[in-house]
Amino acid sequence: MDEEKERDFVLIALREDEVDSVFTPWTINHILAGCAAKAVGMDFMTNFLVHGMYEVKDQMDIKEIYNSPINSLGDQFASMAGHYMATKGQYVWVYIWFLGYAAAIATGNAYG
Fold first, then answer.
1. Residue 1 falls within a domain, yes or no?
2. Domain of 48, in residue numbers
3. Which of 6, 14, 42, 83 has the fewest Cβ atoms within 10 Å of its own Cβ atom?
4. Are 88 and 47 in contact (CB under 8 A)?
């Protein structure tokens, strides 16, 4: 990828091969991760920091798999929205998150 080239921007895309996107199919898994974090008792700020560190890692590793900064912000928002949606003790979110992650990996999309 030529980093000097300006990329188009869209709100939703299936992948970020050619355009930068706020949301991708992996957004669903980020929502579920926020739900799972709340379900196991993680408070909002801890989830914000832990998920934020994950997104920083994504930005440091863009040579292998491209993840735009705007997508990282969208993923961070999605995780926080998921945290807001769930209730502590609703462990079903953990199972759904694992299933969502496994489904994404099974489809050959091993990043997020």
1. no
2. 18-106
3. 6
4. no
CA distance 28 to 89: 20
Residue with tokens 């928002």: 77
Q: Is pLDDT above 80 for 110?
A: no
Nearest CA to 39 among 108, 104, 109, 94?
Answer: 94
pTM (predicted TM-score)? 0.86
Q: What are phi and psi of 91, to 5 degrees?
A: -65, -15
Query: What does the angle CA 4 – CA 22 – CA 57 come to, to the nearest 5 degrees?
Result: 70
Cβ 30 vs Cβ 82: under 8 Å: yes
Q: How many domains are contained in the chain?
A: 1
